[in-house]
Amino acid sequence: MCGIVGILGNEAVAGPLVEALRRLEYRGYDSAGIATVENGSLDRRRAEGKLVKLENCLSEAPLVGHTGIGHTRWATHGAPNEINAHPHVSGDVSVVHNGIIENFRELREDLEKSGMEFSTQTDTEVIAHLIARTLKGGATPEEAVEQSLSKLEGAFALAIIFAGHDDLMIAARKGSPLAIGYGDGEMYVGSDAIALAPFTDTITYLDDGDWAVLKRDGAVIRDRAGRQVERAKVKSVASALMVDKGNHRHFMAKEIHEQPEVLSHTLAHYLDFSEGRVDRSRFDLDLGAIERITISACGTAYYAGLVGKYWLERWARIPVEIDIASEMRYREAPMEKGGMALFVSQSGETADTLATLRYCKEEGQHIASIVNVRESSIARESASVLPTLAGPEIGVASTKAFTCQLAVIACLAIAIGRARGHISEETENELVMALAKVPGHISTILRDESIFEKISHDLSHARDVLYLGRGVSYPIALEGALKLKEISYIHAEGYAAGELKHGPIALIDEDVPIIVVAPDDDLFEKTLSNIQEVVARGGRVTVLTDHDPDRIGADAENIISLPTVHPFATPLVYAVPVQLLAYHTAVFMGTDVDQPRNLAKSVTVE
Ligand code: F6R
């Protein structure tokens, strides 16, 4: 999703702006640009494609201004080309924007009637024209921005600079995230603290509706009603975070391999291994009082929630409803008071998830969230925050964040089950020990990837791939299919294995590889019957299992033998082989593994 930076510096800011944009690359983008105030005038450079193209433009025609804004654009309105790339300029105003202006058509018509000429297809250009028109009418920059903001509907994070004003930048947020950074006689604006980490660790996160006037000596922040407000300055840990690939070819590979370590951290946060117990104090929840749970999330995080439904219902005996956030936010579902609404999000900024959270808050639910970015909007708007300790996830395809989400939900299920009296002390001990073994099992799988490379080579020639699973393995099948399609662009679908004969079995022939997630749990025999149904129709099956391979025998083309795992913990372990299959297939296909086309890491628009 679009990334924003702004710097009021003491020397040329073009280089630092590009450096900050590089740290936002992980969000996904298709063009980039920067603008600076130079000798009182605005000048900009923009380029379609990756940042290296913008850097080439800058080395041919440098920008030397000390005040500037930068942007990585993930196209929403208008093609991803140089003309539509930000910053946009109108008269003395230059603006970068993340979000969507919903009433841009009406605003555009009105602006065109008053003689403003549009040169792009973007919604953002209306913001530049609105402010420029108000400035021309005699307003100060602050007045022009305030009046213009009141006309904008939708979501935005903005950074704005003005010709003739070297010591001024205005930032604003509604919906989309934005942080202000404090330096030594310098000020910064960024979509997140990671972007600002090279310059400062002193950060203020703007609240929804805030706008701020920045000068080199500080910022004055106002809320949506125009009242001057104080917002806390926090020390961000983002500066300490390593954002490099280590010895790996891609961030995704690095993040897959980090899983034993980050899962150990996450599990150790919630579990007392020596006692074989869940540390209930970590949950900041009245665990025994929860009567029903509604889970909502998007994409991979939704699949983590779906595994959670199986676990919470089976082990904690608590009713769970789950829906994808983009549906739930508009469904107007009645919710009984006294329930808990649980949101799962790596970024903590996903627009649909945040909107659903607000809906559930209005419906009187206790809001809890599982997030990887503790300073995110979703975390800040939750009554209870259950962090994943995955560290920054840079690859667009979620891997370690997913397994850490599963780890937290597994611990929560045990904690609630215990508090409700459905899990005995002995069972708690058994389940905790099962989780404790997960990092070791994953290390074993990661020791030798040759089988995954071999099967991925075959998958890379497929047009369609099916993933099957039952029970807790069904969401892992869905996740395997999502992972494959998003980074290799091969069409893939996940199905509940028992649902196959109700339609999808028609797809099966020798050209469609089928990956079956089949741990040795109480549903294994049922899944085996489905494998036989597929093989009988010429299907080429790869089975992921810890069952005796001889039992599956010649029915499967490939059997990937995995470590023996307690049935409770299988989703955490089986997530890794499906990640590896997707990763190696994408490597064979030569796609942009870390930044697949059309995708964004942090989806801050709906
Ligand atoms: C897929 C993926 C996405 C995200 C989804 C939600 O690999 O990463 O499906 O899971 O966009 O994002 P978060 O977790 O940030 O709310």
Which keywords apply here?
3 domains; Rossmann fold; 606 residues; 27 strands; alpha/beta; 20 helices; binds fructose -6-phosphate; eight-stranded antiparallel beta sheet; single chain
Describe the protein.
With 606 residues, this protein is an alpha/beta fold. The protein folds into three domains: 3-243, Glutamine Phosphoribosylpyrophosphate, subunit 1, domain 1, CATH 3.60.20.10; 246-436, Rossmann fold (3-Layer(aba) Sandwich), CATH 3.40.50; 443-599, 3-Layer(aba) Sandwich (Rossmann fold), CATH 3.40.50.10490. It has 20 helices and 27 strands. The structure holds fructose -6-phosphate. The site of fructose -6-phosphate has 14 residues, from helix 9 and helix 17.
Task: Summarize the entry for a quick read.
This protein has 606 residues and is of the alpha/beta class. Helix content is 36%, strand content 24%.
Describe the SSE topology.
Blueprint: E1 3-8, H1 14-24, E2 31-38, E3 41-48, H2 51-60, E4 67-73, E5 88-90, E6 93-101, H3 104-113, H4 125-136, H5 141-149, E7 154-162, E8 165-174, E9 179-182, E10 187-190, H6 193-196, E11 202-205, E12 211-215, E13 218-222, E14 228-229, E15 234-235, H7 251-257, H8 259-270, E16 271-272, E17 277-278, E18 293-297, H9 299-316, E19 320-324, H10 325-331, E20 340-345, H11 351-362, E21 366-371, H12 377-380, E22 384-387, H13 400-419, H14 425-436, H15 438-447, H16 450-459, E23 464-469, H17 473-488, E24 491-496, E25 513-517, H18 524-535, E26 540-545, H19 549-552, E27 558-561, H20 570-589
Parallel strand pairs: 18-19, 18-20, 20-21, 21-22, 23-24, 23-25, 25-26, 26-27
Antiparallel strand pairs: 1-4, 1-10, 2-3, 2-4, 5-6, 6-7, 7-8, 8-12, 9-10, 9-11, 11-15, 12-13, 13-14, 16-17
Helix pairs in contact: 1-2, 3-4, 4-5, 8-13, 8-15, 9-13, 9-17, 10-11, 13-14, 13-20, 15-20, 16-20, 17-20
The structure holds fructose -6-phosphate.
Residues 298-301, 345-347, 350, 353, 397-398, 482, 486, 603 line the site of fructose -6-phosphate.
